[in-house]
Design goal:
eight-stranded mixed sheet; 17% strand
Length: 290
């Protein structure tokens, strides 16, 4: 879960609703004030995250000349979703992202953070024609494998199936805050984190949690998709193990890019450096070996 440092939107970044043939999606959007945008960047957040995880990055990418759109996925925070487990397969979530790109005119530069990277990959495999590039940020090739993480995910999914989501959040917070590295956020941010988590459709969040348990590796299919790929992560990323992310990059035929002084949320921790790496990749075809 990413933790925004501020809830104040930069000038030019605004909430908007993206209408697609698969429904409406809550977004944060920024469009350059001068000239024609160079293209569209579509940002997909991760597990228990939201569009707010990209707020500073939206601003930086827009300043480079890109129309930039960060979304809430279906059932996530401010985007509605059905109380139907079958609506939250990777195939369904990926089809949503395809619809978003089409609604924005196609040929999007697609960026998926953490679990959002798995969804972004599924979208590219569903219809590669509507994406120019895919950037996998602090993401992995498949489900987690270490037993401690898997046990925690299984317990969370079970709780979401059987308890009010508010109670699940309180139990999760109690667990997380007992860790030695926990730093309590400011009161305003703490209130937002609770509102965001409990704003999820419980069935949807439970199923998304299960995707972190059962997703299969489709890196080889992505490498053959014809869509240029990028792998980048914070130097201290504590999501998927860094050797796993490096292995994914190798399978894609690219050199992984490391963001200094960042961890699992470089879009918040180092937005300027993250934007530079993304924009360089959008413009540079020389590194493509697919």
């Amino acid at each position: 879960m990413s933790t925004p440092r501020s809830l104040t939107l930069p000038d030019g970044v605004r909430p908007a609703t993206l209408e697609t043939d698969r429904g409406s999606f809550a977004t944060l959007m920024a469009v350059p004030d001068i000239g024609t945008p160079l293209g569209t960047v579509l940002l997909v957040p991760g597990w228990t995250g939201s569009k707010e995880d990209f707020t500073p990055l939206v601003d930086h990418l827009c300043r480079y000349g890109w129309r930039t759109v960060a979304v809430d996925q279906r059932g996530q925070y401010e985007t509605p979703g059905p109380a139907d487990p079958s609506a939250y397969t990777l195939a369904e979530l990926g089809a949503d992202v395809v619809a978003m790109s089409k609604a924005l005119g196609g040929y999007s530069q697609l960026v998926g953070h953490s679990f959002g990277g798995l969804v972004a990959r599924e979208a590219v495999l569903t219809d590669p024609s509507v994406f120019s590039t895919i950037s996998l940020m602090c993401s992995g090739p498949a489900a987690f494998t270490d037993e401690v993480t898997l046990q925690g995910l299984q317990m969370l999914a079970y709780g979401l199936d059987n308890l009010p989501i508010e109670q699940v959040y309180d139990l999760k917070l109690q667990h997380d805050s007992s860790g030695p590295a926990y730093i309590a956020p400011p009161e305003e941010i703490a209130a937002f984190l609770r509102k965001r988590f409990t704003g999820n459709v419980p069935v949807g969040l439970a199923e998304v949690t299960r995707r972190l348990i059962d997703t299969q590796d489709k890196t080889d299919q992505l490498a053959k998709s014809g869509v240029r790929a990028q792998v980048l992560y914070g130097e201290g990323d504590d999501g998927w193990p860094i050797p796993v992310q490096r292995g994914m990059a190798e399978a894609l035929g690219v050199e992984p890019q490391v963001i200094p002084e960042a961890f699992h949320s470089p879009a918040i921790e180092q937005p300027a450096a993250t934007a530079r790496l993304l924009v360089k990749f959008f413009h540079d075809r020389d590194g493509f070996t697919g």
